[in-house]
Amino acid sequence: QSDMLPLSGSLPENVVKADQLKDEGNNHMKEENFGAAVDCYTRAIQLDPNNAVYYCNRAAAHSKLNNYREAIKDCESAIAIDPKYSKAYGRLGLALSSVNKYEEAVTSYQKALDLDPDNDSYKSNLKIAEQKLRDMSSPTGTGLSFDMASLINNPAFISMAASLMQNPQVQQLMSGMMSNAIGGPAAGVGGLSDLSSLIHAGQQFAQQIQQQNPELIEQLRNHIRSRYLSGSTEEHS
Predict the structure, then answer these.
(1) Quick one: angle between helices 102-115 and 120-137, nearest 10?
(2) Which DSSP category does 235 fall into?
(3) Alpha helices in 31-84 (DSSP H)
(4) In this structure, which topology does domain 12-137 adopt according to CATH?
(5) Residue ranges per domain, the chain?
(6) What sign has the CA pseudo-torsion 77, 83, 86, 89?
(7) How confident is the model at residue 191, as a pLDDT?
(8) Residues 147-153: what's their mean pLDDT?
(9) pLDDT of residue 118
(10) 115, 84 in Cβ contact below 8 A?
(11) N or C of the chain: less Cβ packing under 10 Å?
(12) What confidence tens digit (pLDDT) does each residue in 89-132 have?
């Protein structure tokens, strides 16, 4: 036990070094070197594990790398250390939204706004999360529903779709889907000639991806969402 540091504080030289690592991490964030930023914040946490800012900043870096589950954990650690840390609730809301946990995201944004009532980013993201929650609970809303018209006209979606089509798993799925839809017994004579069977094939395809590679669907959602969600230009503590 004698070699354990007391939880109440870290050695003064470690605190100084940790703060330098945090600044280094912040510089990496500005240069979009998110992996390097995670590394700096992690080293800062090892030196000074009771500083909520380091966890919260690492959460931002994780979010940029689409590591939303790690971001959620880091935000929760920051909040456990400092329950009045509005930025940690804001970042938690963003990470929860990114994994479609809109109900929890709404709660987080509301808490962030309680602590920082004039923050426009929290206000707009709260509205987005509330809208997503309504969409999901409406009878027509399903976990896979996208606004197709805006998607098809969205260059980000088109480039994402193009890169998805390069994915061997997706190509395999598509060829399987098409042969089933056109030549399969359930397709009838028309195959994919009418719209309803085309839509049905699309839904089946989406469900198959969801089952076989949910990460692809999540990447697609996140790619689209990142175009619309505000809060990407925030400063770091």
Answers:
(1) 160
(2) -
(3) 34-47, 52-64, 68-81
(4) 1.25.40
(5) 12-137
(6) positive
(7) 45
(8) 57
(9) 95
(10) yes
(11) N
(12) 999 999 999 999 999 999 999 999 999 999 999 999 999 999 99
Give me the mean pLDDT over the 155-171 stretch. 67
Cα separation of 62 and 48, whole Å?
Answer: 19
* Secondary structure class of 93 (helix, strand, coil): helix
pLDDT-derived band at 192 (thresholds 50, 70, 90) equals very low
**Amino acid identity for residue 64 in this structure:** K
Rounded Cα distance between 194 and 94, Å, is: 40
**Residue in the block written with tokens 């966890």:** 55
pLDDT score recorded for residue 137? 73
The one-letter amino acid at 26? N
Specify whether the CB–CB gap between 216 and 181 falls below 8 A. no
Would you place residue 30 in the very low, low, confident or very high pLDDT band (cuts 50, 70, 90)? very high
Give 123's contacts (C-beta < 8 A, 6+ positions apart). Answer: 113
Joined tokens for residue 52: 């909520």
Distance CA 88, CA 77 (A): 9
